[in-house]
Each structure stands twice: as C-alpha cells, then as structure tokens.
Amino acid sequence: MNNETTQKRTNYIEWEEYFMATAFLAAQRSKDPHYQVGACVVNEDKKIVGIGYNGMPLGCPDDDFPWGKSAEASEVLETKSLYVCHAEMNAIVNKNAADVRGCTIYVGLFPCNECAKIIIQSGIKNVVYLSDEKAHKPNYIASKRMFNAAGVLYRQFKPKRDKIVIDFTQDNWEESPAKLRIS
Ligand SMILES: Nc1ccn([C@H]2C[C@H](O)[C@@H](COP(=O)(O)O)O2)c(=O)n1
Ligand SMILES: [Zn+2]
Questions:
Q1: In a mutational test of the pocket of ligand 1, which residue from 20, 24, 37, 124 has the highest number of ligand atoms less than 8 Å from its CB?
Q2: How far is CA 153 from CA 30, 41, 105, 156, in A?
Q3: Which value does ipTM take for this structure?
Q4: pLDDT tens across 43-66, in order?
C-alpha cells in the first residue's frame, strides 16, 4: 500500500516565529555572559537583509576586552558598556541590501536609546521585540519617546509556542523529515 502523503505539512513555523527564532539563533554567538541578544532585519518582501548579535567591534578581541558590568565610575573603562556593539546596530550595519528603509527589526530585547537612534536614522519602520525587561530605565523610556515621535511602530512578539528546538541528531530524512522539533 502506498501511504505517501499528498498533503502539505501543517506543523511549520510562521514567518514571525522564523524571524524571531533567527534573531535568537544569532544571539547564541554572543560572548556576553549576562545578555545574549540577537536581531534580524526583514524587508517588505519577507527577506532577511541583516542579522546581528551583541559583540565587540571588529578588531577588538573578545578575550582582551572586558565583559563585566561593574559599577564604580573609576572602573567604567573596564566594563563592556563602552565597547560592545548592540545586536540591532550589528544587524543594520551587516545589511546585505542597499538600505533597510521600510524594514522590520526582530530583536530579543527592546532597543536602547542608542539603537533606537540608529533604527530611526536607517529608515526601519517596525520593531518587534520579545522582552521589555529594561523598560523602567531612562534610556529605554527615551527609545519609546523617539520611536513615538518618529513614527516607528513597536510591538511585543507573543509566541504561540514555548520552544523551537533544532536537533542535529536525526539521520533519517525520509522517515523523520523535520529536523526541527516544535513544542
Ligand atoms: N536591545 C539591546 C539591549 C542590550 N544589548 C546588549 C548589550 C550588552 O551586551 C547587553 C546588555 O548590557 P547592559 O544593559 O547590562 O549594559 O546586551 C543589545 O545588544 N541590545
Ligand atoms: Zn542598544
């Protein structure tokens, strides 16, 4: 008996899940011990035109620059904050298109004020974020003020599922074609 299915798969991830998951995958490249943030820029044709994560600038070795976030003003030169490039900035400067006007940026954490400025100046029109855990901080309040003034729309991503797991261990494509486990 031929039990070959002629129906399309239904258990596939939606576009928004795909873009946010791409941002989360990029975040796994981050060396920051406290925050791993990823960002994914998508154009109006649903094509990914930029991906980035928080990391040290090119030529600034991850092992030579500080990753701590200690407080004393005298020690600020030995904290990451003066050096690290945020995920949003990297995703925008890494763009593989002429520009990112009209694009949407998917990011794990709501953009800070510096990234908000870059987002606005680059012409990105929509921000989709997962966490807004720094919303109480002045620089994040400033981001919203600038987005509101500049007409950049922002909304929280509401995941329909808790996990998307990538499993490299399966070796039988015919019987288990989906290497991606969705739960
Ligand atoms: N929207 C954001 C927010 C933060 N980051 C990065 C930058 C740092 O590596 C880390 C947070 O640092 P902290 O706020 O503790 O100084 O997360 C980002 O890439 N995008
Ligand atoms: Zn930022």
A1: 37
A2: 27, 14, 11, 11
A3: 0.95
A4: 999 999 999 999 999 999 999 999
Q: What is the pTM of this model?
A: 0.92
Q: Sign of torsion, CA 29 19 86 80?
A: negative
Q: How far is the CA of 66 from the centre of ligand 1 (A)?
A: 14
55 CA to centre of own chain: 13
Distance CA 124, CA 43 (A): 9
Which position has the token pair 């807004």? 132
Contact 71, 119 (CB under 8 A): no
Nearest CA to ligand 1 atom 19: 86
Dig out the tokens for 89 from the structure.
């900035």
Helix (H) or strand (E) segment spanning residue 128? strand 126-131
Q: Are 57 and 91 in contact (CB under 8 A)?
A: no
Question: How far apart, in whole angstroms, are the C-alpha atoms of residue 42 and residue 126?
Answer: 10
DSSP class of residue 91? H
**Which 8-state DSSP code applies to residue 97?**
S
| Proximal ligand: closest to the CA of 107 | 1
- What are the start-end ranges of the H helices in 94-164? 113-122, 138-150
Among 18, 22, 14, residue whose Cα is nearest residue 50? 22
C-alpha distances in Å from residue 171, one per residue of 57, 110, 162, 168: 38, 38, 25, 8
Matching residue, tokens 């739960």 = 183
